[in-house]
Specification:
heterodimer; A: alpha+beta; eight-stranded mixed β-sheet; 19 helices; 21 strands; B: globular; disordered N terminus
């Protein structure tokens, strides 16, 4: 036998009223939304009907709670409709099957209705213990006005008011409950009404005593054509709504989700989570942060958008993550790319202004989008050891490009590579390596070579008088040997650099593994060992002593093998430190011991070696 | 706890301005490899300056962004987790162990993909993860899941299937994987066991779009393609192919490895243009995959795709230069297929040697027949 679920009505109302929404603020939206739906319904039969929504606030006297009355001159309800729409939770409860509901929702979307589940009014229980609705149908002139009183415990009373001179439309009365008085304060109510309703096509007024404050914008921005005058309006709107003066304004259309509006390029860099985009649905505010709507690479753009075809969540504070949202997001992304491409072609000055602020983000876009990459790559500037250069300028004159793949490698290479006249690109900045690799794919005539400090050591010649330095390269015990570091002598510039620690990228990863292993547990030592690149596949790690350095030349003349060894060990640690390599414990000990030995010796002989 | 000067765990009071600049720059970026690189620099620089708190912040930030990464980012994941665990073992009050335990599950999933990690170490790794979960008051469900997954990833399907009842019976807790990922695991097991109808039943909520996460449904749809094909439900397969492939290619950090099943099925189902486009764009990227599992899987999928293409009359394909596989311009399809097969076989054999079975080489041998009942 099929049993029926038992529903605790009080629990359901509590769930809808107190747990579905992120804040009690939304009750303002819900009452306005119901009013707007009523106006939309009335306009179906009376296209010329001039609708209004009024939020009439009466402040309580002598500590009495304030009262809000939300009045509309929309379609109104008959007694049976009151029972159907105000007294059933969940719009689908009276439908036979889900498809019929879906069909109705689709029709509602097309018609511009905002409400859906019949739960919006319940949000008022977040701020009031009782909801009173007085309504009269515009469709049935003979139908009497009806009063509905609903309580948070699920009970309601319906009363017909045959003698009452009520005009067609609906009034919702709410009296602030304890701890909810703040929502009935003048400034708060105006702020909330403006937030939710400013873009609605119907007039929405907050009336407080003799004050009448219209909260609507004169124009919905997505309906602006975007001419010169509109640009001023839009820039003001951006400043007021998104909080910045835009560097550029452009229209966005994403037909997949029925989205139209404008994009605004930010005047400063915004953290990845900080960017706001305002989304409205049929003119009603939805959220400042709709996930997956604007692609997450587009942090440099703020948007004000209206959607007629996106599926909102039950709380209407977000959008369902579905294929429509994905397709919409792609189309918004395409609109942003297209705008940048147009600026690049037609308004280079403005593009460079944007680039000056959003360099990283725009490089990121070039990595993701091939067409945009083609447009921009030649103009992009890259840091090299011989100074910055645009890619286009470089590729026209060279067929070979050396790229340091990390900023650390680049930093280590820079002084010595520059002194040797070698131009090495910094691929370590954000997106630079990806761009250079893609550029190499696009220009097969240009050979891109990954270049690290081990390659630099290979590039330097051995000195002509190599025999003179032979003793410096003797086998060393301790950390130098344990790290399989080979001591070699090379001739390189600048001559005031006595030693250079040449560590390839893979070997650098190996060194990091070693460092982590030195603090990790036995199990993790085994895991990291298994991950390590095979030692035989690594470029040799080298301590390159500079034969042009006076210090090295002098060391080559030392007779005392112990002193020579100490000097080389100190140079090893010094080279590590110059290369900004974090020192391991044994290396630090080597430095301490070496310095101690040298100073002791110095003190004994009163002569600095 | 009192710390003396020279103690590596001593707190630094001020952050170095250079490190702060790098950290600010990283926080400006969305989750991506570039952000990880920057955070890696922050961690190393901070550590060199003895600022362990910033190094911890940077490394935990790297870990958090790696939910759906692929190699070579795995290696960064391993390194960061090892460092963070070591730190929290030393000073759990300052470096909370619970901060990085969620990511331990990802490491447990990815470690078996490297043939160089011995089976014994993998078992111990899952045990260690389980123990740490219990120690912070989380439950056992994730541990059971990872043990099951380990059996599956090391080619022992029977043992993995045998653990399903225990897994289902273990209560969910805050350390459990999301329901979408769990359903995805079950679907994968059933497809591998050729229990195609059961797999589709398990996948029902995913197909309807009611279970989603960073990698679901696209990973699941790819797995289901052979099952639907074998059942003769080609229209459904084609729909899932289109939905899944689109998701797999448009995800922000579009993982190359997720595309392998779409590549093979696309060519099988006659989606020639899609397949050629994927090969052209992704083959050069696939070369940078480092784990044996991903390489066996991706190049196995590419081999199947190229074989189907050749059977459809595509004798030559145009590719950008991929060292060891293709030169710039047109290459004979059969030749590229053979190169891909050679790579896949090499890694399948390495995995089988570690696992002590022939699972991966058998799968590769039957890869072109997987769509036939």
């Amino acid at each position: 036998m099929t049993e029926r679920f038992k529903v605790d009505l009080r629990g359901i109302i509590d769930l809808a009223a107190n747990h579905l929404y992120t804040s009690p603020d939304v009750f303002v939206r819900e009452v306005i939304q119901n009013a707007v739906d009523a106006l939309t319904a009335r306009r179906r039969g009376e296209p010329d009907h001039r609708g209004f929504v009024r939020l009439e606030l009466t402040n309580g006297e002598d500590d009495q709670p304030g009262t809000l009355c939300v009045v509309d001159n929309g379609i109104g309800l008959t007694t049976p409709e009151v029972h159907e729409f105000l007294s059933s939770v969940g719009g689908s409860s009276k439908r036979e099957d889900a498809e019929a509901v879906a069909e109705r929702f689709a029709e509602d979307d097309e018609a511009g209705f905002l409400g859906r589940f019949g739960i919006g009014l319940l949000s008022c229980f977040m701020v009031a213990d009782e909801i009173v609705v007085v309504t009269k149908s515009a469709r049935d002139a003979d139908a009497p006005p009806v009063e509905w009183r609903g309580r948070a415990d699920g009970g309601y009373v319906v009363k017909e008011l045959p003698d009452s001179p009520v005009r067609p439309g609906t009034s919702v009365y709410l009296t602030a409950k304890e701890d909810a008085e703040e929502y009935f304060e003048r400034e708060r109510l105006i702020e909330l009404a403006r937030q939710y309703a400013e873009m609605l096509p119907h007039e929405v007024v907050v009336a407080i005593g003799s004050d009448e404050i219209s909260v609507n914008q004169k124009t919905q921005p997505w309906k602006l054509a975007g001419g010169e005058e509109d640009e001023i309006l839009l820039a003001d709107l951006c400043q007021n709504s998104l909080g910045f003066k835009p560097l550029d304004i452009f229209p966005i259309a994403a037909p997949a989700g029925g989205v139209r509006g404008y994009g605004f390029i930010r005047a400063d860099r915004t953290p990845r989570w900080g960017g706001e985009n305002k989304l409205y649905a049929h003119g009603m505010y939805v959220s400042d942060h709709v996930y997956h709507l604007v692609p997450n690479w587009a942090t440099f753009v703020g948007c004000i958008l209206n959607a007629d075809g996106l599926k909102l969540t039950a709380s209407r504070e977000g959008v369902h993550f579905d294929e429509t949202l994905q397709a919409t997001s792609e189309q918004i992304g395409a609109a942003i790319r297209e705008r940048l491409a147009n600026l690049l072609r037609r308004d280079r000055k403005r593009f460079e202004l944007i680039m000056a602020v959003h360099d990283t983000e725009i490089r990121g876009l070039a990595v993701k989008d091939r067409d945009f990459f083609e447009l921009i790559i030649d103009l992009l500037e890259f840091d090299t050891t011989l100074g910055p250069i645009r890619f286009g300028e470089f590729r026209r004159e060279h067929d070979r490009m050396l790229v340091a793949r990390t900023a650390e490698q680049y930093r280590r290479l820079t002084p010595v590579a520059a002194a040797s006249g070698l131009r090495v690109f910094n691929g370590g900045y954000t997106y630079h390596e990806e761009l250079l690799c893609r550029a190499a794919e696009r220009h097969p005539e240009l050979e891109v070579i990954s270049f690290d400090s081990a390659d630099l050591a290979n590039h330097w010649p051995e000195p002509d008088d190599a025999d003179r330095f032979e003793r410096l390269c003797a086998t060393h015990d301790g950390p130098i040997k344990e790290r399989e570091c080979e001591v070699v002598v090379r001739a390189f510039e600048p001559a005031d650099v006595p030693a250079f620690f040449a560590l390839g990228l893979d070997a650098e990863f190996h060194r990091q593994l070693d460092q982590t292993k030195s603090i990790a547990s036995g199990l993790w030592n085994e895991v990291l060992d298994a991950m390590a690149p095979r030692q035989e596949s690594l470029a040799p790690t080298r301590l390159c002593l500079n034969s042009r350095s006076r210090l090295v030349q002098r060391l080559a003349t030392l007779e005392d093998p112990a002193l020579l060894r100490t000097a080389i060990e100190v140079l090893y640690v010094q080279a590590l430190m110059s290369g900004h390599h974090p020192l391991m414990r044994d290396e630090l000990a080597l430095l301490h011991d070496g310095m101690e030995r040298l100073l002791t010796r110095c003190a004994a002989t009163s002569e600095i070696p | 706890m009192r710390r003396d000067i020279g103690d590596p765990l001593m707190k630094t009071e001020r952050r170095d301005p250079g490190v702060q600049t790098l950290l600010d720059e990283a926080h400006m970026l969305p989750d991506c490899a570039a952000r990880d690189t920057l955070l890696g620099q922050v961690a190393k620089s901070a550590e060199a300056l003895g600022d362990l708190d910033t190094a911890w912040e940077a490394r935990t930030a790297i870990l958090s962004s790696m939910s759906s990464c692929e190699s070579p980012r795995f290696e960064t994941l391993f390194l960061c987790l090892a460092w963070c665990l070591a730190m929290s073992d030393r000073d759990p009050e300052r470096f909370s162990p619970a901060t990085v335990l969620w990511q331990y599950k990802w490491v447990a999933t990815h470690a078996p993909k490297y043939a160089s990690v011995p089976r014994r170490v993998l078992t111990r790794l899952v045990e260690d993860m389980d123990e740490r979960f219990i120690a912070v008051g989380w439950g056992r469900r994730a541990g059971v899941h990872k043990r099951l997954e380990l059996h599956s990833l090391t080619g022992d399907l029977a043992s993995a299937m045998a653990m399903v009842p225990e897994w289902r019976a273990t209560p969910r807790d805050r350390g459990s994987d999301c329901t979408a990922c769990e359903a995805d695991t079950l679907v994968g097991l059933h497809v591998e066991a050729r229990e195609d109808e059961t797999a589709l039943r398990e996948a029902k909520q995913i197909i309807r779009g009611r279970l989603t996460c960073a990698t679901v449904p696209h990973s699941t749809f790819g797995v289901l393609l052979p099952a639907l094909s074998r059942l003769g439900r080609h229209d459904e397969a084609r729909k899932l192919y289109q939905r899944g492939r689109r998701l797999a290619t448009t995800t922000e950090e579009a993982a190359c490895s997720l595309l392998a099943p779409y590549l093979a099925y696309g060519a099988f189902a006659g989606e020639i243009d899609d397949t050629l486009a994927t090969l052209r764009i992704r083959l050069p990227q696939a070369v940078s995959l480092r784990s044996d599992y991903e390489r066996a899987d991706w190049f196995g999928g590419a081999f199947a795709a190229l074989t189907f293409l050749e059977r459809s009359g595509v004798g030559v394909i145009e590719l950008t230069r991929v060292p060891g596989i293709a030169e710039e311009g047109e290459s004979p399809t059969a030749q590229v297929a053979a190169s891909c097969h050679e790579i896949a076989l090499r890694h399948a054999r390495a995995l089988d040697a570690r696992n002590g079975n022939t699972h991966f080489t058998d799968s590769l041998n039957g890869i072109c027949d997987q769509y036939i009942a």
